[in-house]
């Protein structure tokens, strides 16, 4: 019997990937680096600074910027990204999310967020779902990003659920790898990326039967 749910944010609760892409593309254009939607797939679930490093490497400019300049570039991207989120509202929840969180709450199943995004608390507030989560892991406290299991283990500990009693929800390959390395049951949310390591893959949360999932 499963006792707790751990959710990724981008791609599971809401689709912020399109806004990340828009903001990164604007910055990349300014730097004279060309990125496309296919390249953007490789940025899913990856931290802000790692994403910037990948973009710079993609443009062959690994040595062009100092650490301070990279901090400034990442901050610039984030300012644009946050601006793009200004109209985010409950209508931007992915299908089935509101119903699933409500059902989990009614059953007394604790939920936590394991997202690489430092904007997660603000995004959850705008989506009006913060009250469903007992804890949001602070990415500033992590020593390693996904696919390392650290974020999922911290999330499970925060809701006092043993990893082998937890279910993790992820849309990114690196995230599924992290959930499996943490010893949890992994639900993959299908996007364009295949998720062969997931225990079950669905298009969205409307496809899940919560009682059956708890019995896994
Ligand atoms: P921020 P997730 C991730 O969210 C995104 O998929 C990734 O593209 C982004 O770079 C990362 O959050 C950091 O976001 O710049 O807001 O701190 O999928 O882990 O919920
Ligand atoms: Mg994600």
TrEMBL record:
GO molecular function per UniProt: beta-phosphoglucomutase activity; magnesium ion binding
Write out the catalytic residues in the record.
Answer: 8 (nucleophile), 10 (proton donor/acceptor)
- Catalysis: reaction(s): beta-D-glucose 1-phosphate = beta-D-glucose 6-phosphate
Location of site Important for catalytic activity and assists the phosphoryl transfer reaction to Asp8 by balancing charge and orienting the reacting groups? 115, 146
Identify the keywords attached in UniProt to this record, alphabetized. Answer: Carbohydrate metabolism, Cytoplasm, Isomerase, Magnesium, Metal-binding, Phosphoprotein
- Subcellular localization, per the record? Cytoplasm
Q: What InterPro entries does its record include?
A: B-phosphoglucomutase_hydrolase, Beta-PGM, Beta-PGM-like, HAD-like_sf, HAD-SF_hydro_IA, HAD_sf, PGP-like_dom2
Q: Which residues form a coiled coil?
A: none
**Metal-binding listed as a keyword:** yes
* Entry-linked SUPFAM superfamilies: HAD-like (SSF56784)
Q: Give the EC number(s) under which this enzyme is classified.
A: 5.4.2.6
Give the record's GO biological process terms.
carbohydrate metabolic process
Binding annotation for Mg(2+)? 8, 10, 170-171
- Cofactors (names): Mg(2+)
Q: What Pfam families does the database record attribute to this sequence?
A: Hydrolase
Note how many cofactor molecules are bound and how: Binds 2 magnesium ions per subunit.
Positions bound to substrate: 8-10, 24, 43-48, 51, 77, 115-119, 146
**Keyword Electron transport included in the entry's annotation:** no
A single GO CC term for this protein reads: cytoplasm
NCBIfam families assigned to the protein according to its UniProt record, in alphabetical order: bPGM (TIGR01990), HAD-SF-IA-v3 (TIGR01509), PGMB-YQAB-SF (TIGR02009)
Could you say which protein family the record assigns here? Belongs to the HAD-like hydrolase superfamily. CbbY/CbbZ/Gph/YieH family.
Know the name of this protein? Answer: Beta-phosphoglucomutase
Species assigned in the record: Listeria grayi DSM 20601
Primary gene name: pgmB
């Amino acid at each position: 019997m499963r006792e707790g749910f751990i959710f990724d944010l981008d791609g599971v609760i809401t689709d912020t990937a399109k806004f990340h892409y828009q903001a990164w593309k604007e910055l990349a254009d300014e730097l004279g680096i060309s990125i496309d939607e296919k390249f953007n797939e490789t940025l899913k679930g990856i931290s802000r600074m790692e994403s910037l490093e990948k973009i710079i490497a993609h443009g062959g400019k690994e040595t062009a910027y100092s650490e301070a300049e990279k901090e400034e570039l990442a901050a610039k991207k984030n300012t644009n990204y946050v601006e793009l989120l200004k109209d985010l509202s409950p209508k931007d929840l992915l299908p089935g999310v509101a119903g699933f969180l409500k059902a989990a709450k009614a059953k007394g199943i604790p939920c936590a967020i394991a997202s690489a995004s430092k904007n997660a608390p603000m995004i959850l507030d705008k989506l009006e779902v913060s009250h469903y989560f007992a804890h949001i892991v602070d990415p500033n406290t992590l020593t390693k990003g996904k696919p390392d299991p650290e974020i999922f283990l911290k999330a499970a500990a925060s809701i006092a659920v043993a990893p082998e009693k937890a279910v993790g929800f992820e849309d990114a390959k690196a995230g599924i790898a992290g959930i499996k390395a943490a010893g949890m049951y992994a639900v993959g949310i299908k996007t364009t990326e295949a998720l062969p390591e997931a225990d079950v893959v669905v298009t969205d949360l409307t496809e899940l039967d919560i009682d059956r999932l708890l019995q896994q």
